[in-house]
Structure formats: structure tokens, C-alpha cells
Amino acid sequence: MTIRKAIVFAVGALALAIVGASPATAQAFPSRPVTIIVPFAAGGTTDVIARIVGEHMSRTLGQQFIVENVVGAGGTTGSIRAMRASPDGYTIELANMGTHAAAVALYPSLAYNPEVDFTPIGMVAGLPVVIVGKKELPPNDLKEFASYVKANAENLNMAHAGVGSITHFTCLLLNSILGVKPTLVPFNGAAPAITALIAGQVDYMCNVTPDVVQPVRSGAFKAYAIGTSRRSAALPEVPTSAEAGLAQFQASAWNAFFAPKGTPKPILDKLSEALEKAMDDERTQKRLLELGSEIPDKTRRGQQPLAALVKDEIARWTPIIKAAAVKSE
After folding, report:
1. How is residue 294 annotated by DSSP?
2. C-beta of residue 227 within 8 angstroms of C-beta of residue 131
């Protein structure tokens, strides 16, 4: 009986230790640097946003937030790495509409399910998509652009930054609305695609505001419309798609933080709270707005709104991509 009691006591003590460890661990988080996986190249929009927001979060939580760029396969390589990381809050991902919505339709053998294998932390930034054309393109507004593209589609080239990129599937939406199938010209990233557009080697493309602000301001190419309900503070002269006569074109990309499935709720809440403080910081907001991104309002920032957004975006983009018969290995 003495041995049995000793065993029972030991098991009970172990259980209490395990139960008591969770709050203590959460309370101590973070006790070392946190890695932000950015599934795209350094210097790109997602990378810059990660560094701006991570800088503020590091001050709030008292630990450095280190950006690690893991590129490949439209951002899915980095997302797979993030999914497989230890669910302890020390590895998170700044993902986007491509990696956590469009990839579901683009990659039939995708190694992760965005709705299941990740836990949302919160929305970081909205990225309005702008329809742009080369400087020499005859149309001067969106209505003229739509008529011109419909009449000349077989002779036009649409640039994009690779299958699965935001530049790719948002312009698939535009082409679908217009009922056209121009020649699609892929580039190894948005920068070379923009360079080709400025040089007049391609005719038009769809791209996020941060990537086109400077060329539009300098007159290097034309901007026809922005795919959001409000004009961008960075490009106030560019009309919304509804104002320009093509209200069906609603396209705004987004960046958001995710953690691997199984990350403890207290740790997720700490990260969400730090993110919320960053998004309320005037200097952080100013830097993001100058970049051309949008600050999500409070109703869109939390864990639950982000989970709902991922579900809705997968449902929205899957039929568009499948209808275009786009495949990626």
C-alpha cells in the first residue's frame, strides 16, 4: 500500500507540475528572439512590412523580432517551413492572400491547409491592387481601357510576377470580368515586371500600391483604377474601380501574422496584443501609409476576423483560378 500511495502521489505531483507549467511558460514568453518568416525576397513589400511592424512588437515584448526570408513556389516554401515550426510562438509567419488563399487552388498537392495548419494572430496591412498600363497605351481612363483590351486582347501582353503571385491572380479576375484572354508574360518577381512595363515591353498588369506608387507619380506608366472602395492616400488621384466604371473589380491584397497550429492561446494573445499596439502606433501607421498600404480597422484585426477572412478568400479566389485553368507544380 505504501508503494501504491507513493506512485499515486508521484503521478499527482507530475500532473500538477505539467498543468502549472503552461501559465508560467506563457507568462515568461518571449524569453528569446522571435523569428518572422517572410516567404518572399528581402526588400519586397511583405518584407518591408514585416520589419516595420516587427520593430514595434519587439519594443512591446522586450525581445528582438528577426526576419527570415524563405523564398520559393509563390511563397508556399516559407509557409511550409512556418507550419512545421515548433508551436511555441518563437516562429511566426507574415503570410498573404497568395500563400493563404490562392495557393489552395494553384497547388493541388499543397502541403498545408491554411484553415487548419495555422492559427491566426492578426491582420497587419491591406494592399490595394491598381490596374496599370504602359505609358504608350492609348486609353486614358478605365472605360477606354476596357474597350481597348476587349478589341485587342489577342495582341496584348499582360505581365505578372509569377504564377500564384498577387499580380497574377488579381489580373485573372480583371480578365475574367472583361472576358478576355491576353498573352500572360511571367517575370521572376514584381520588380522586373514593372521594369518591363516602364520599358513598354508589356502592355498592362495589376499590382499592389506600394510597388507602383513611384512609377505612377513620376508618370512612368498609367494608373487606371484601384480595386478598393476608397481611394489610396498614397495615390489620391487614382479613382476607385467603382468610380471608374468597373465596380466588379474589387481586389485588395493583405498581409497577416500566423502561428503554427497548436500554439498556446496565452502566447497567441500576447502576440496579438503586441500587434494591436503596433497598429495603433502613429509612427508605425505613418510608415505603412507612406508605403502605400492600408491600416485595417479594429474590427478586422483580431484572431477571429482573420480566420473568417482566410475562409472567405479561399472561397472567392478558388473558382476564379480554376476557371482560368491555371496550374502550378
Report:
1. B
2. yes
CA gap 300, 60 in Å, rounded: 21
| Helix, strand and coil in the chain, % to nearest 5 | 50, 20, 30
d(CA 262, CA 36): 17
Which stretches of the chain drop beneath a pLDDT of 70?
1-27, 325-329
Q: What number of other Cβ atoms are within 10 A of residue 14's Cβ?
A: 10
pLDDT in tens, 201-222: 999 999 999 899 999 999 999 9
- Number of separate helices (H) and strands (E) present in the chain: 13, 9
Residue 216 grid cell: 505612377
pLDDT at 21: 42
Backbone angles phi, psi at 72, to 5 degrees: 130, 145
Length of the chain: 329
Q: What are phi and psi of 203, to 5 degrees?
A: -95, -45
Q: Specify whether the CB–CB gap between 68 and 35 falls below 8 A.
A: yes
Q: How many Cβ atoms sit within 10 Å of the Cβ of residue 79?
A: 28
For the chain, which domains are there? 32-126+253-323 (3.40.190.150), 128-244 (3.40.190.10)
List helix spans (H) across the chain. Answer: 2-28, 45-61, 76-83, 97, 103-106, 142-152, 166-178, 190-198, 209-218, 241-244, 265-280, 282-291, 303-323
Question: Is the distance from CB of 186 to CB of 176 less than 8 angstroms?
Answer: no
pLDDT digits (tens, 9 = 90+) for 148-190: 999 999 999 999 988 778 899 899 999 999 999 999 999 877 8
